[in-house]
Protein 1
Amino acid sequence: MEVITARNLVKDYNGFRAVNGISFSVHRQECFGILGPNGAGKTSTVRMVFGFSPITAGELNVLGRDVTRHAREIKARLGIVPQENNLDPDLKVLQNLLVYASFFNIPEREARERALEQLEFFGLSDKRDAMVDHLSGGMKRRLTIARALINDPEIIILDEPTTGLDPQARHTVWQRLRQLRNRGVTLIMTTHYLEEAAQLCDRLIIMDHGDILDEGAPGPLVERHVGAEVLEVGQGAAAADTLLKQFHKQIRGHLVVGDNLTLYPLNGRELLARLQDLPHQFDHYLLRPATLEDVFLKLTGRGLTE
Amino acid sequence: MIRTLQMDISPRVFKVFRRHLTVYRRNWKVSLSFNFFEPLLYLAALGYGLGVYVQSIEGLTYIQFIAPALIASSAMFSSAYECTYGTFIRMEFQKTFQAMVATPVSMDEVSLGEILWGSFKSFLYGSVILFVIFVLGLVASPWALLVPVVLLISGLLFAALSMIWIGLVPNIDSFNYYFSLVITPLFLFSGVFFPLSGLPAIVQTLAWASPLFHVVNLTRGLVLGDVGMNLVWDFVWLVVVAAILIPIAIHLMRRLVIR
């Protein structure tokens, strides 16, 4: 069942087109990723979904309702984790959840119960009376996610949930998100971390310059565009033509990034052995499993962090 | 124009107001004592200091003359500060508005909540000054009990006016200009410190356009028990102007935050 349907969705800001007529749908109980570099239109897309930005053109249905006309009802059933922490620094940790709950008209006693439950789940119980500014970055992030859960939402929208966190804090957040997904909550997240998309998302779209480049489950996407493995040839760009001609039977595709050459071999080990037998040796060889980054590089000709 | 001035307001606006009240409950003592310290200084310096050299104005001692007007001016300052610096910090630096509008609260309710909050502060700080001048024996009439109502309306007006400034010049440095170009001239030329009757007719006409002039007429008239139809017209003036400014403020804030 589709919980979000976008058709030819467009977002313009003062003549700048941030989202260029995209169509996608999100199914109930999946974790849906929107992957792309900064400026790809990810945040603009999710801001339209949760009714913050008015849509410029196209159609956008969330939970069976038109966002333009039913923003309030839709927002009551969503949980939003924005890119910038916007916890209320004037309030303590528990108060943050209680005040936020009041915006949903949740009765005070119930709000308190839920808030304490969320603090427990996110390991913040002993911080309930701390000021928000005294929390670490990872704790703030967890509190923001806890806040988004206070209305027991049907869909949680996370905009860059782990950007700016150290690796350990990131893994803690991922673990919580996986638990939520296992509970059957629908998750939508934007990210420019491939590992995040690969670890969490059941299905994703890859965006760049306001367009969707491709969509699918992470594994099949990688398989379709690149294959199982890639072989990086250090400073092999100059010799690309020669190598491709010589080994065209073992290679299904390639990509030149800077002076490096990345080959998509049919059989990685075999190709590596052949390359190492050549009289001319390259700077380095690296045979590794293919990732979403390779897909992204292939689709756009540049990396996600550029 | 009609469409853009339409507002999306539900009772949830009081949840926004309650958020401000919750925050305020944490630091009200400090905030309140600072805010009534300044009018007290004026009262002491001008009323007791300068007042010695000032002959009676309209049959009043100088302190009797300025005390009720300081209720009006301190109420103006409190909502003007709240709905420039306070509102802007919540919007721009704390992103509190963005967090609120991700819930079923609408941006219009956020803005109106700010305006109600600014009005409440006018009411609170003005009433504290009223109480102080009552203790000092400067309240002559039970009509003074209506002053808080005036403060609420003038608070709405100055809160909306301040947020219109934010909507037009959304920059924290610009608030200096707001205070030096708008609020301070109002403070000086609205009959707080001297009656305008001695000034040229043009100044008196300009004063009629000053919201604070009408608030001062009301607080002074009510505190001194000098009431008449003219006060009704002052009150109507405030209600009408507030009713015009509030939708404009809400519209400009929506244009600023929602993109």
Protein 2
Amino acid sequence: MHIKQEATERHTLSVTVDNESGILARIAGLFSARGYNIDSLTVADVTEDEKISRITIVTTGTPQVIEQVVAQLDRMVPVHKVTDLTALAPHVERELALVKVVGTGDHRIEALRLAEVYRARVVDATISSFIFEVTGGTEKIDKFLELMREVGLIEVARTGVAAIGRGKEAL
Amino acid sequence: MTAEMTGADILIQALNDLGVEVVFGYPGGAVLPIYDALFKQNRIRHILVRHEAGAVHAAEGYARSTGKPGVVLVTSGPGATNAVTGIADALLDSIPLVVLTGQVGTPLIGSDAFQECDTVGITRHCTKHNYLVKDPAQLGDVIHEAFHIATSGRPGPVVVDLPKDVQVASALYRKPSVQALPHKGYRPQVKADPALIEEAVAMIAAAERPILYTGGGVINSGPLASQVLRELARVTGAPVTSTLMGLGAFPASSGQWLGMLGMHGTYEANMAMNKADLIVCLGARFDDRVTGRLDAFAPHSKKIHVDIDRSSINKIVRADIGIVGDVGRAMEDMVKIWKAGQHQARNLAPWFEQIDGWRARKSLKFPASTKEIMPQLAIRKLWEATHALKPIITTEVGQHQMWAAQHFDFEGPNKWLTSGGLGTMGYGLPAAIGAQLGNPNALVIDIAGEASIQMNIQELGTATQYRLPVKVFILNNEYMGMVRQWQDLTYAGRYSQSYSDALPDFVKLAEAYGWKGVLIEKPEELEAGIAAMLEHDGPVIVDCRVAKLANCFPMIPSGAAHTDMILEADEVVGEMDDEAKALV
């Protein structure tokens, strides 16, 4: 017997929640308990009084699973609002990566040149290393890392996706 | 200005303000301050169980039979972990509970202290919501919100973890209003969208083969919802079936009643679901025990799904119309719009003719025996002897549970208490104790199996202590019957570990606990045995020795469609393929 697999889609969700202890465990736990995927998850408080946090979750699943993810998140007591940004409207997605590259000579020059192409900033430098700061969509960062692997990448830290809808309306 | 109170006193005061009359619990180190506060008052009655598992099921029985939330009080560590099964049970069956757990003092949390466990972590996914209260000033609000969350929207269990120092420390308490509760985002939708109701009514009026598929949501909505369901069935003329959880919402004596649907449902209910052109799902959730093989489930029908929990809609089966709201109020709106629009039900006579054809298969028929007591007959005799008394029936889990669902007819809601979603053996006896406490004058019977009853048998002592005249009617076939039945169907009769060996003498056991014991061994003793049980003004165990190898039919086997039911006369012993085995 084989387990069946179905075609999946990638969706970016924005979830506003009460900023209370255990909230991240609650959200992450929902995903593991119900077998949903988390590709990326970011969280930070976004209101002046620090009472509301905004969580951005990138998940993959069948359309039916995505609908369930939204409904299941929405019924959690500390959750205020769940928005499927992918389904809703055009939106902007960004993440930031810090990339440590080690090398000398040609590799070092090539790394700097590529960083310029990707508008990555040098935030730390030694005789034999750079740390680049690069922001952009997930694909851009993936591509940048792919290139840096060729020229001495030894360490990466990524933030995960933050996303917001385009236009003048707020969520 | 109000004086400060200890956390324990704030808790008791809040429970009083919330109208709590009964708490089921078991003391321990981390709840001693609360037990001391309980000692000094006399408004809240504490029922001392014999095991925390019993406390939670008793609270569930109390909640389901009265419609009020059940309250549990247990200590930290093992007290809390022992309560987990009942909490998960209440989550799956949407039963309103508030479970108060003691916790080690806040400075000790995380230090692997004596009787410490991460209660909020452990119960996070088997509660509707849970709390760890670290500040006594917030305790009152949390308790009020816990009750609000447990009882509103889709009901469920809420755990409040109370560190010992928070119980001892002092703070001010003021009864909060619902609007002032901490979680502003929690606003369950109760009133359904009127446009969708209009659309649904038009669909029902246009249907040639409609069916009302009702569930536990109708019971949870309150007794009024059961009345409105009857009215909806009357005006639309549609036949009615129900899940295990919804039994009693619609009277079994009605001509529109098809019996329960699903794995052990009637042939007519399942065939009608399969052939219907419109399924109106009212407070049910298309559980796998109801749908059978999904790709063959009700292939010719449109579906209207009414549920208070948005996540139930489109979870398993796609609805043509999904209506979020309280099912009782939604049905009320449907009836109003039906009447206001002067809708006439279509002529459903051809549909009922078809249904009568399925009814003629008499799927609940069972073989007669003069030598052995057929378990179905035992249930039927029990019903005959007691139905006029409108008893509350609890069950354990297994064959006896399904036979009770099939052969004990219910006319009203809140009379049938069974563990449906989680399927918890050991549920019935403590649930009966809880139901009896909530309904002191009712006849409460736990229909049990000899295996299940042993899972919480210690609660016999609780009934004795509080002089609760509950009756336990054991269908004793010396097997974990449902396991054995599946082994017949799926594993060619290899009875792996399903024999109930070394059984106690239940009559002597009853007597040891101060109960009466009755033994029924032959069919001709059934009526007298049941009469003896009813005559005794106190708790009774009936050990009813039934046919050992009887199987529960009809049955939709794993991975099969509604149209592939096995009836009593069919050959059943065999081996299934891996796909069917994997489907549970």
